[in-house]
Amino acid sequence: MNTLLKFDNVDFYYQTKTEEIKALSSVNFEVSDQEFCSVVGPSGCGKTTILSLTAGLLKASSGKILLKDKPVEKNDSRIGYMFQRDHLFEWRSIWKNITLGIEIQKPQNKEAKLELAENLLKKYDLYAFKNQRPSQLSGGMRQRVALIRTLVLEPQLLLLDEPFSALDFQTRLKVCDDVYEMIKSEKKTAILVTHDISEAISMSEKIIVLSSRPAAVKSVLKLNLKGKTPLEKREDPTFGELFDKIWKELTNEEKK
After folding, report:
1. Do residue 110 and residue 234 come from a single domain?
2. Backbone angles phi, psi at 204, to 5 degrees
3. pTM for the whole thing?
């Protein structure tokens, strides 16, 4: 597959009142078109910093971040971002929440994007709820709405920052399946940042393991587990071995 995203020797420093702290050190990795990739690492190592750099919310101190061979820009419209919380506005209907980005961006193909929004609501069984408020939906349904809101803007790359962390375990498993199915069905590329090793293994074709801060890429694992859904992939005989391998890498880091 063609490379969609490339981190090329990326360093990142941030300033405090008293010093300059190195958060990322010579980070190198690639994500292929339509690949689902997860990033794991010790707590506080810089996982979310990598997403913020990819989205153009932060600028690399050195190195290059390329999306389809072009540098990412500030608030790059080619990239969609799903946060830990769904950030749905209670005073707006589901339809008004989903089309908020269209209102703000005012694209020339507005009618086509509105048609896409309607089709996605129908495709993912949310059309009957289009006039309801977010509080009337379950946590899983709210996450599907949040993803549709992002997909409507037709990004080339989706960034998922712990999007399931606010859900209970049972709901989380179901929503992982739903979100995975939607991303694969829409043929999108995704990068998931998560503290949950099992979640990363079950959803990904590739896992990037980071070292402790300043974060560098410690290893890259390519996965090919049996199963059509993340839940089914948890039954793969190699699942436990992969979990142990990643767990040992992370716990060894935390002991340093």
Report:
1. no
2. -110, 155
3. 0.91
